[in-house]
Amino acid sequence: MNEIMKSTITSMEVAEMVDKRHADLLKDIRKYVKQLGEGNISPSDFFTESTRISVQGKEIGCYLVTKKGCEFIAH
After folding, report:
1. What pTM was estimated for this model as a whole?
2. H/E element holding 59?
3. Under a CB-based contact definition with an 8 Å cutoff, are residues 64 and 5 in contact?
4. Within its chain, how far is the Cα of 20 from the centroid?
5. Residue 3 — very low, low, confident or very high, per pLDDT cuts 50/70/90?
6. CA distances (Å), 41 to each of 28, 32, 45, 48, in order?
7. Quick check: 29 and 43 in contact, CB under 8 A?
């Protein structure tokens, strides 16, 4: 298993933990990624873009979220 996958959780799990719709959390994460990039901070320390397969078999966007990313979202 990829090392990043061992040390992250999915944005779907985070959305459930913070009681937020996944689509809304994705919008927030995209905004955070842009802000981090503008501040010359590596967004990959917080979020890594990924995909998942829906129950309908479609590929859907999501993020892998590090501990730092979870703390960023929580605050």
Report:
1. 0.84
2. strand 59-65
3. yes
4. 13
5. low
6. 17, 11, 8, 14
7. no
